[in-house]
Amino acid sequence: MHRQTIELRVRRQDTPTASSRWEEFVIPWQENMNVVSCLMEVRKNPVTKQGQKTTPVYWESSCLEEVCGSCTMLVNGKPRQSCTALVDNLPEGPITLEPLTKFPVVRDLQVDRQPMFDALKKVKAWIPIDGTYDLGPGPKQSAAEAEINYAFSRCMTCGCCMEVCPQYNGKSEFMGPAPIAQVRLFNAHPTGRMNARERLDAIMGRGGLVDCGNAQNCVEACPKDIPLTEAFGELGRQTTVHWLQSLFRK
Prior knowledge:
Order of helices and strands: EEHEEEEEHHHHHHH
Structural class: alpha+beta
Distance between the termini: 72 Å
Largest sheet: 5 strands, mixed
């Protein structure tokens, strides 16, 4: 038997520096609702469970098909994408929605993931090309290489792995699992290998690979099943070889 109504318990915060508060909402149940559609219903009539008029809940979303990562929030305490959090698959009772805790809050359920993007810049998570003209066909990859690289290319910078990582916090310089895993991806690319040393230098410094505590929470939380610990193991090998080679180059 379907629930007749859906109760939401939302942590609200008006500005980045404001104090947070809880507000509760009750909306009619509809078939195939996800958390995003629940928030859309609240937006139509932003009145709390207690009958008080309030502002619409602010959140971020884009693709609505678990690709962009922008709608990530804590749903019943678990970091996940709200677009694929189907109401009928959640436990009975109030659905608790909170912003991620490892990133600065912008407003309500939206956070600023800029620290993660800054870390991607630090590790040069891209493949530089000389100009924008036609360079012709790129180097070929084997099917085995392409399969491994595809697994890491699925990262959508949603922040789930960062949220559950005990080493990624305000007291640590650790850049987090997502940026480090992208070093694994771009160092494996036939063209990206040309800049592999620069990326390895970036993760061998402060906040890099050595600060990973191997809790492996990131693998459990990743919605794309990215083999993050495999990345750390391979990069540990690469950084060791790079360090030894640098000794002999002196």
